[in-house]
Amino acid sequence: MYNFVYQNPVKVIFGKDTISKVAEEIPLNAKIMLTYGGGSIKKTGVYDQIKLALKDVELVEFGGIEVNPHYETCMQAVELAKTEKVDFILSVGGGSVLDATKFIAAAALYSDGDPWDIIAKQARVKKAIPLGAILTLPATGSEMNGNSVITRVSSQEKMAFSSPKVMPKFSILDPECVFTLPDKQVANGIVDAFIHVIEQYLTFDVNSPIQDRFAEGILSTLIAEGPKVLADRKDYESAANFMWSATMALNGLIGAGVPQDWATHMIGHELTAFHGIDHARTLAIVLPGVMHVKRESKKDKILQYGERIWGITSGTDDEKIDTSIAKTVEFFESLGLPTTLPEYDVDIDTIAKITSRFEERGFKLGEKADIDFNEVEAILMDRL
User: Fold this and answer.
1) Residue 37 in 3-state DSSP?
2) Mean predicted confidence (pLDDT) in 155-181
3) Which of 100, 170, 334, 363 has its CB 3.0 to 4.6 Å from that of 25, i.e. a possible disulfide?
4) Which tens digits make up the pLDDT trace of 254-286?
5) What is the DSSP letter of 114?
6) Domains delineated in the chain
């Protein structure tokens, strides 16, 4: 196991009827900016719960944050935060709203140049407006980390940044928010969380059995509980297990002291940037290609994954790997997520654009930094 430092300061408030507790977490006399998406929180009653809980708090609202939040929209919120001299930002929604909120919090206090540099040049975030979260959609794990992914529409770029300065002060997780989600969002959330785990697990062995077993526990829970949530949205216990799995998948715990991949995410971001495909669905497309193309360097962990998660014990190593990939694809498709490029009308021209972008940037992806633009092309060609 590698050396590591692990610290997670996010206070998690988990369970039913916890949204009403938000007033207890807000700083006294703070001017709060409420950020949210397209308005679903008003239809589900979450908005009314928050307004009631914060009836004595000065609120400024900013709605309309997109799925795959846009830099251009975020900058409008930055201007509002500056104009209103906001002291605290409360994100209400899923990972997209929270990712946007993190960037808004950092960009509003950024004084070293263009705020886009925070993302494009990984400029250091020295300070940020404090923020909290009320999570309505389990998926990204953003509620317990300092990560954010932002899309710049004008340049068709989707890129990430990370800073401890934008970790939420608290996150409220009420599984009953899952009750009103449509099938597509639940399915996307299951796959998003699943592949977050895979990115930190399906690499190579460094003798880290605790992290491996934690990761396998999350994967097994998602496989068992995810379909139950899809079948019965008001199954509270399954909703709770799903929500907590998504949080645990990306709060740093299972990634401490182990190699991490993230090639699937990096390639998937480009499919969203060029075609607007849902984030989780890009991951469901790309992961099988990564597993196939990197089957030799990931061999031991794919075999372990196949045996421990899918019970695959017979056949040659190549046959076991093929079966492991097939079982993974079968799981994604059982949730309603197609796993090939033609099913999203993506053709070889887009593959050429993505390959060219990785060549221009000189990126080397993967846990061994051994995936260059040629292998990116091979991964995507595998999904045609």
Assistant:
1) coil
2) 97
3) 170
4) 999 999 999 999 999 999 999 999 999 999 999
5) -
6) 11-176 (3.40.50.1970), 183-381 (1.20.1090.10)
